[in-house]
Amino acid sequence: MRGVSRIPLRAAGLVLLGLSSAVAAEDPSTVGFSFLTLGTGPRLEALGRAGTAIADGTDALIWNPALLARNPHGEVAASGFNWLADVQAGNLTAQFPLGGTGLRAGSFALGVRALGVDDFTNVTGEAAIGQTDLAVDAGIGVPLGSGVSAGLGTRMLRSSLAGDTATGFAFDGGLNFRWTRGWNLAAAVRDAGSAVGYVAGHDEQLPTEVALGVGGTVGSVRFGLDSVFPNGQASEARLGGEYALGQQVLLRAGGRIGGEADQAHAAWAVGFGLKPRPDVTLDYSFRDGDLNPSHRVGLRWAFGAAPEPEMAAARSPREFYSEVLEEAIERGLADFPRDVRDTVVVQVRQEHAAASTVTDAVVAQLRNLGIAAVARAPVAELPPIEDPDVAAQAAEAMEAQGYGAPDSPWLRIDVRESVYEITRTRRDRWIGPKSVDRAARVDLLFTLRDPDAADDRWTGAGTAARAELVAADLVPTSEGYPPASGGNEVGAKKMHPLVEPAIVGGIVAGLAAIFFSNREVGQ
Hints:
It contains seven helices and 21 strands. By secondary structure, it is an alpha+beta fold. The longest helix has 24 residues, at 499-522.
């Protein structure tokens, strides 16, 4: 990974290694504080809790603090949900940039989670007791360079049950590597720390997890796949997918594969997100269970400067070509006579696909120089005619149509070269979005002649060329010259229409398999 400082990257790796060692050193016989495994917002719940590589905004505080560096903008999120029969929980989280803007800024986040259980009793005649759990979270994520970011988090824990209280601390660590645009490789350790004891002397270990995740984007589908190793439980895989239906609706589904049988939670979850405004998102998720289904509702509001995209939208083919054309015209007219007082008639000598585009751009440049100018449509050159009478008649007909020599200065243009082309198409790191190498070249010759003059008054020439690499899906389409035909319009090359439905169908089939396999396990 070129450009990555070895010292901070090595330090981040040692933090993860140390936290992972703490997990292995614990005796998994008694694991408590299970409310920490319930997650937070509806988005990641609907995605099967596969958040190691695809958590966004404030969700990153819980799932992988390294992802806080990916979207350094302000955000406030709140959510609430029910669990089992008489359990309610909620959380409030805020994210703030570290200063400045851009992908290099990073951010930190603060949050609080609370869970309450109504008073209950399992033995006749005993007094009813209740339970409350509280976690206060803080985390920071910073970029290290070359697509690598790291994050650290901590939380203060407090649990009260039957009059006894336990307090302690937990720690998180995470790394994220941007493999290519839309694809991430991530690792995280969540809720690492020593066992926490109640006043009565009973110690409970934290539900520590070590997770490895992959996040990818294919068209409008974003998915995450996690491999999770929980303390005191069997390892499991988590899969979630999100489909963007336009700009306002997000459809989500996810589930777990393997792990311990859990009759209180179904293995699968579904949900959606609604964006009435670009900065506001309303999220909902549903997870079934034998005892009681769980519904989660959340609201996210982004404030301050919007996050910078990983790659800004490219110029359209017409915009890219026009920049090269204007550069060639500026060079060609650099020494154009400034003493021209009459209106200059501008005309391309020969019929050309770019004739009107070139003519209009030259007129605009002359007017910027303070010279009056008007455009005249191009006309095809007359072929040689041996009969003098026929040639004279053709010349008279063209002059009657306004194509003769004007009664004012005449600037004629030869378009010696005008090219916009895609020179190569490729994918970044084999699986990334399609990128294209494109180029534009313009070569113009200018000739100025005064009315009734036999010789040219002034001649000039201007050339310009430019090449660049752009993401194909970020190039907007354009009308006019250069034309979309011939494969030169980047935006015309779209993904096959069956690809996205096939991906969505695969996710649905996988979730159905997860659902029925876990029903058999529960039975």
